[in-house]
Request: fold
Amino acid sequence: MLSAAPENTDKPWGQVWFVSTGLAYLKENNLKKLMTICFAAALLTFGVASAQDTMQNDNMKADASKKAVQVTGKISDDGKTFVGDTDSKSWTISNPDAVKGHEGNHVILTAHVYADKNEVHVMSLKMAK
Reply:
């Protein structure tokens, strides 16, 4: 038996040393577990927050295409494309029936613009002056 106290005393110093180091080991082990759990919780919180932010940006992109905008330009002679006045960009008309009778004319379209598909969905139109 290991003992730090002289042999003539009644106190079991070796046992006290063992118990105190055992408690210190348990406290250190619990602290490591607590730190690991806190780190994992922080990573999880960050992951959830960034995922929500990403979803919000995707919804904003979808909302932009849902709003109808007014654009001025000319409808092609076949009624399938529209050329804008501001940038001379050519857009495919997704619903050519909406522009029937206005082929080749300069018009103001109220339309949903889908820049990723390079097309417009005409909601209404009027002749430009």
Notes: DSSP finds one helix and five strands in the chain. The first strand starts at residue 68 and ends at 75. The chain has two domains: 12-66, 67-127. The beta strands are 68-75, 81-84, 90-93, 106-114, 119-127.
